[in-house]
Write a sequence for this structure.
């Protein structure tokens, strides 16, 4: 599997985590030291992986429309831009991923709420 395929697989796992309300999938897709940051309803949010997993698992399952807008691999790091609609809100996610020990994971998710 190519690095880009592996990165896209991790992004798919992240999307699936939201669709299924699975904190376990969040923990698989995100690095243990990852941060999720951005503004939601005017409030700055800064969540750790366990906090984000708890947030996702507390939501009702449902379809998440998404589109990978870009994906760039640079050695053992990658960046991706993903637009997704989750909980009725359209997010533009800027993801930074890292490959550690041959396994890719999301290290930072900086999100912007569109509209």
């Amino acid at each position: 599997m190519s690095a880009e395929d592996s990165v896209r697989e991790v992004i798919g796992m992240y999307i699936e985590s939201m669709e299924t309300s699975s904190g376990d999938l969040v923990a698989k897709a995100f690095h243990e030291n990852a941060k999720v940051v951005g503004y939601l309803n005017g409030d700055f949010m800064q969540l750790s992986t366990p906090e984000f997993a708890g947030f996702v698992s507390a939501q009702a399952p449902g379809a998440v429309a998404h589109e990978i807008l870009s994906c760039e691999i640079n050695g053992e790091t990658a960046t991706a831009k993903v637009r997704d609609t989750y909980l009725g809100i359209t997010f533009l996610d800027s993801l930074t991923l890292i490959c550690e020990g041959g396994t890719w994971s999301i290290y930072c998710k900086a999100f912007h709420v569109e509209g």
Q: What stands out?
A: The two ends are 37 Å apart (CA to CA). Residues 3-20 form the longest helix (18 residues). Strands lie at 30-40, 43-48, 65-74, 77-86, 89-100, 103-113.
